[in-house]
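task queued by scheduler; priority normal; single chain, no ligands, no partner chains; default sampling; output format set to structure tokens
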Amino acid sequence: MFSAEDEYYMRVALGQARRGLGHVAPNPAVGCVLVKDGCILAVAHTADGGRPHAEALALQQADGASKGATAYVSLEPCAHQGKTGPCALALIDAGVKRVVIACIDPDPRVSGRGVQMLENAGIEVLCGVLEEEALNLNKGFIFKVTRNRPFVTLKLALSADKKIAVREGSRTQISGALAGRYTQFLRSQHDAILIGIGTALVDNPVLISRVKGHLHVMPRVILDAALEIPMGSNLVQSIADAPVFIIHDVDDVDKTVDLKAAGCTLIRENPRNLEKVLALLTERGVTRLLVEGGARVAQSFLEAGLVDECQLIYAPVKLGPGGVAAFPDTDIEVYGMKLKKTRVLGEDLLEIYGAAD
């Protein structure tokens, strides 16, 4: 069992870790808190790009005062030599007397070895404090290690009668302003965003995360089998702001040359082979993928069983029988999803579903 004090400081560490979501891939988002004599010496999270790690930054902040301290870490400290030294060794060298860990690192280079290194050095180690919350926070990293694919979140804006557009080929604004701001926040916590060519042609989106005071650059991924994306599209024209990955399956040499010259990354693969697409994105460092549509792409991911979380934003309007259905079946539960929580966003309602246990 762990104490209320351990839980409190671990919550601080988890709060720090969340600040790294969308910025540290392919590394995990980790938070570290150093506590001594009932006072917090330092708080840190893994830096953008994945280095330095949270433990190293916290020890740096403590500036030599960490001897005899307790370190609260949201993920097992690494025990292998990478581009930087092992964090477990850094904690040992700093003289901490106790390390409290939320969850074990699933990476086979680390799993259990960090704990063993600390214990061999005579440091008291406590594992499993707020473990479920820590595992949930780093589900993208865990999926990368255990399934060779990103954690996939499907987000759709729907009318009250579960339509996403007034008619086929029509761009339709459904959600309100607060829901729009929430969508920007959601984007900021993911490593990449994906749409189909239909959405790219109809909506001509930019798909940039625009959270005030929060710079977040992530690849925009387009499933575009026949390379239909126009050179003048907002996605191609905004290549200087964020990368564009195009998954295609044609030998259009001229279009390929033009898109590459514009700065796009072209990936030759059948866009319908979603498992392969996800594996290829994982190779490029994506651990958390946000799928924003449209209907065909949403249905494809759902039918393939590749949606891990579904966020549906319902607006209090009806688009009628001529509207485009978000998915053929009436209820998202048909695809093995279970309602986890709801939240009011102004006049809209957010429903968050997870894969059924």
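post-processing summary
- The longest helix spans residues 4-18.
- DSSP finds twelve helices and 16 strands in the chain.
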